[in-house]
Write a structure and sequence with these properties.
heterodimer; A: eleven-stranded mixed sheet; 35% helix; B: 502 residues; alpha+beta; Arc Repressor Mutant, subunit A; 19% strand
């Protein structure tokens, strides 16, 4: 029998249905794999905490997910389990509640792993190097980054240390690591999945989404986590379709737009070739494509780093040592004064990148700068959204590379934030526009690093993403490739 | 009866009158910022109870504690209460409204930002009519917006504690235009506003419980000047009286500074209730940059016109309307009516009494309400509707009628009411037990008169010879004989008749 941890959720569910296996076996296979390889990959944090999830032996197994383990990014609240955003400042924080997505997963019979997956601190980064616990390594090349910020989730799925995983995507944090690790990652439409219990980075951009081994698992997971939540008033009350129904191997007549602004200098030539090959393949399957223009693309990174940091500076204000998490101890504080406690706690509790973004965000909201930066960014955000609205009047979807380069070396960009920020250049716009986007594996570089294909569609049309991604996957085998560890 | 706490105002040195002349050269510009707790059942953005006085931190949840991952969801009732207030203050209710974050660090603010409204408040451009010097003055309302309250800090010697029960309670901020020109006007504005909000039943407006708070902006300028003077923000005033006193103090302080050729420095000052003066809190240079920006966790709320009209229909009769109706329907004077309508509960109680009273002339019952009953209530720090009258309104009316019909004297009636309330015994029972009815029975009075004349032949003779004082002596004797129960007017008449016709 194949090692269970290497299978997809839908394969496992079939085996569970046929009574070939029991859920406990999946977890033991997974734990064995984690013991074997996580010292190299470091996809999980606080691994000593991994234990037998309680609901494995309950009746929940009759439900959709039947005890399938799900690995959770460290910024999604899990009742009673450490949720620290891989930051020192949330050291020891155990939320007294489940995020809505976790609640839905439990109701569907999933087993939530106690150990969480690694991430850039507060999701600030594109490489998972900004974690308080140290970087995660790319399973395809351990000297490379897994991407970020959901690098832990992507690496865990890629290395078969996870069956299904959840990540969060504010500017590409699901899709870019999925591309770097050769797995499937979906950022849903803003409002499709409840944000309740997701520790906010930038509230108007954040979405939780699946990271999986194939498109079918992605649809399966989306079926469980999607839907209106009265506790998140930015979630939208629109009926959720059964996404597995979109898994049809047929793309005939689908109109694809290829934005010329995305094929720019600085893009890795190998990535370009691989992508063109993929587009041709889709054409061969009956889709049509045409070059389009998204004229405001060049402003996306600038707009993003104003809006996202502005919101982050406010969202992270609550981490002050007063109620929970880390507080700088008396001995370190010269005088026992409140402001000193704030300064020491935040000074010692936040990492470099978090501090950089808090300062940036505070600056752009400051009196005298608000109009020039924040307000102007909001206006350009509207223009970017309009670019997409226009395109989707004529096209069913847009295809782009997920990232301009494959995974880069650990340490390569960490000293140069601007360079790092540019690795999100293709993913950021979907967050600014609130539209759904998926990344699927579409090939490998000569050095053996995965490359991702990004598909974007209009709001609440995840079905289009699934349809195209599934057809592509059915006619390729990139998703079946496994890293050697 | 247990008497409530009596607040005795500390003695205040009279002001140096030589300064008065100089104060007259200036005019005062005051704007008031009033915060009221809306008494919704649950908090503004979560389902926690808003009940006052519960054990600290017993009415909290991840949302009002600002726990990571929690999200606010607007309590629609808070929005509707706010709209109601906006409507009665004649404001333009916007078609849509949004929330903003006001960012600042303070331990009572669990998220270190407050959900408030900045550039698109719920409503603006309204007004409130107040009475000042017998005239009506219209004070503009600049804006009304909804926000969440912070927690409460309790400072101890060894530590500061935070109680988050208050965190997230919906708070309405009502900002006036700087059109108030004196401390008494400010006082009148506040009492009028409070009375209206109480009528709407959307807030307790209890300054002691912190459900109504007021800050003031005040500046003075040379009379006739169109430029505004330097603004001082006043805080820490925990009663309307404190607001008035602080404003009076500031007018004098600022005039004095200007007269001495000095300048007023823009700052925030605190009212010191012990010293009866304002003291500097922080200069404007240290003023905070709140970095307002749209709250991304809350969507824009569309306020539907027909919902606004529905809310408008739920607005009850307001104090001014009620006053005019009381004058018209019950023939009350403006003075009496105004006192009776000041609070809705009292007005309702008064109207119940007035209606229960079968007598057509409502002046006597009104007098009883604003006279003896109000006096007793005031001593106990209660309002008239809160006083427990044994036997209820029927007994109260009975007592009034006994006095009016001359069955008991006014003095006796008042003391009977006090005693009745203090001992919890109906007034009529006290009168019966103590046999307090005046003797008005003419046969009985005649007998008494006869006896008195017989026993005081000298005085009777004196009266007949024209000594009018003698009659009063005889009346006194008759009262004594009757143990004070004789109707003094009646006995006087009978004595007079007997003596003159004998």
């Amino acid at each position: 029998m194949a090692e269970l941890n290497k299978l997809t959720a839908h394969e496992l569910i079939e085996k569970l249905n046929n009574k070939e296996i029991v859920a406990e076996e999946i977890l033991s296979a997974l734990k064995k794999r984690i013991r074997e390889v996580d010292s190299k990959v470091k996809a999980y944090v606080r691994l000593n905490k991994i234990s037998e999830p309680a609901n494995l032996r309950t009746k929940e197994q009759e439900n959709k997910l039947k005890g399938i383990p799900v690995s959770i990014k460290d910024n999604i609240c899990t009742d009673g389990l450490n949720t620290e955003c891989c930051s020192k400042i949330l050291e020891g924080f155990r939320p007294p509640y489940d995020a809505t997505v976790i609640k839905r997963l439990r109701q569907a019979g999933a087993a939530i792993l106690d150990a969480k997956t690694n991430m850039d601190e507060f999701a600030f980064g594109s490489s998972t190097e900004n974690s308080f616990f140290g970087p995660t390594h790319n399973p395809w090349d351990l000297t490379c980054v897994p991407g970020g910020s959901s690098g832990g989730s992507a690496a865990a799925v890629s290395s078969d240390e996870a069956i299904l995983a959840l990540g969060s995507d504010t500017g590409g944090s699901i899709r870019q690591p999925a591309a770097f690790c050769g797995v499937v990652g979906l950022k849903p439409t803003y409002g499709r999945v409840s944000r309740f219990g997701l520790i906010a980075f930038a509230s108007s951009l954040d979405q939780i989404g699946p990271i999986t081994k194939d498109v079918q698992d992605c649809a399966l997971l989306m079926n469980v986590i999607s839907g209106y939540d009265p506790r998140d008033c930015t979630s939208v009350n629109i009926k959720v379709p059964d996404y597995t129904k979109s898994l049809v191997n047929d793309v005939k007549g689908i109109k694809i737009g290829i934005p010329k602004e995305y094929f720019i200098a600085g893009m890795d030539p190998e990535v370009k070739d691989i992508l063109e090959e993929a587009i041709n393949q889709l054409k061969g399957l009956g889709a049509t494509y045409k070059e389009i223009s998204l004229p405001h693309t060049e402003y996306a990174v600038a707009v993003y780093y104003i809006i996202a940091t502005a919101e982050a500076s406010s969202n992270l204000a609550r981490f002050d040592g007063v109620q929970y998490g880390f507080r700088s101890q008396k001995s370190e504080v010269r005088s026992q004064n409140l402001i000193d406690m704030y300064k020491k706690t935040r000074g010692n509790g936040f990492g470099q990148e978090a501090k950089r973004r808090i300062i940036l965000g505070t600056f752009v909201l400051s009196h005298g700068y608000y109009d020039a930066y924040y307000l102007r960014a909001l206006k350009v955000r509207t223009l970017i959204k309009q670019d997409f609205d226009q395109t989707f009047k004529e096209f069913d979807c847009i295809i782009t590379p997920t990232s301009p380069t494959p995974a880069f070396k650990i340490g390569e960009k960490i000293e140069d934030p601007l360079k790092m920020y540019l690795s999100d250049i293709y993913t950021i716009s979907a967050n600014l526009a609130g539209i759904p986007a998926i990344s699927v594996p579409c090939g490998f570089t000569k050095k053996g690093l995965p490359v991702g294909l990004q598909i974007l569609a209009k709001p609440f049309n995840e079905e289009m993403l699934f349809r195209l991604a599934y057809a592509y996957e059915q006619n390729t085998s990139w998703h079946k490739m496994k890293p050697k560890l | 009866m247990t008497y409530g706490r009596l607040s005795i105002p500390p003695f205040k040195e009279p002001r140096d009158l030589s300064r008065v002349g100089s104060i007259m050269d200036y005019e005062t510009v005051i704007g008031l910022e009033v915060h009221v707790h809306l008494k919704t059942k649950t908090k503004a953005f979560c389902g926690c109870s808003t009940e006052f006085g519960k054990e600290p931190n017993s009415q909290v949840c991840p949302v009002c504690l600002g726990f990571p991952g929690s999200l606010p969801v607007l309590n629609k009732a808070a929005l509707e209460f706010a709209i109601k207030v906006a409507l009665v203050l004649n404001c333009q209710v916007q078609d849509s409204t949004k929330f903003d974050r006001k960012n600042y660090f303070y331990p009572d603010l669990p998220k270190n930002y407050q959900i408030s409204q900045y550039d698109l408040p719920l409503s603006r451009d309204g007004f409130l009519d107040i009475n000042t010097d017998g005239k009506t003055k219209r004070i503009g309302i600049r804006r009304i917006h909804l926000e969440e309250d912070a927690g409460k800090l309790i400072h101890r010697e060894d530590a500061s504690l935070v109680d988050f029960n208050r965190s997230g309670i919906p708070l309405l901020e009502i900002v006036s235009e700087p059109e108030i020109t004196s401390a008494p006007q400010a006082y009148e504005y506040l009492t009028t506003l409070k009375s209206i909000i109480e009528y709407l039943d959307v807030s307790d407006c209890d300054m002691e419980k912190g459900s109504l708070r007021c800050d003031a902006n005040i500046s003075i300028r040379k009379k006739g000047s169109t430029e505004l003077g330097t603004k001082i923000e006043l805080k820490n005033m925990n009663s309307f009286k404190a607001v008035r006193d602080a404003l009076v103090f500031e007018v004098e302080r600022q005039s004095e500074l200007l007269n001495e050729g000095k300048t007023v420095i823009q700052e925030t000052r605190l009212w010191d209730i012990e010293e009866l003066k304002t003291i500097p809190m922080r200069a404007k240079e240290e003023a905070q940059d709140y970095r307002y920006f749209p709250e991304p966790d809350l969507t824009t709320f569309i306020i539907e016109r027909n919902r606004v009209e529905e809310i408008r229909k739920t607005i009850p009769e307001l104090p001014r309307e009620k006053m005019h109706r009381f004058m018209k329907e019950y023939g009350l004077s403006e003075y009496d009516a105004k006192i009776l309508v000041a609070s809705k509960k009292d007005a309702d109680f008064a109207e119940e009494c007035i209606k229960a009273d079968e007598e057509k002339n409502k002046k006597p019952i009104a007098n009883w309400l604003i006279g003896p009953l109000a006096q007793i209530a005031g001593l106990a720090n209660l309002s008239i509707s809160e006083v427990k009258i044994p036997g209820g309104i029927p007994e109260f009316i009975k007592l009034k009628n006994f006095e009016k019909d001359g069955n008991i004297s006014n003095l006796v009636a008042k003391s009977v009411l006090s005693e009745s309330i203090a001992r919890g015994i109906p007034a009529s029972q006290i009168i019966r037990d103590k046999n307090l009815f005046q003797i008005s029975d003419s046969q009985k009075l005649d007998n008494i008169a006869e006896e008195v004349i017989k026993e005081n032949t000298k005085s009777a003779a004196d009266y007949k010879q024209g000594k009018n004082n003698a009659l009063m002596f005889l009346v006194g004797q008759a009262m004594k004989k009757s143990q004070g129960k004789a109707n003094p007017k009646a006995i006087q008449e009978i004595l007079k008749r007997r003596l003159e016709h004998a």
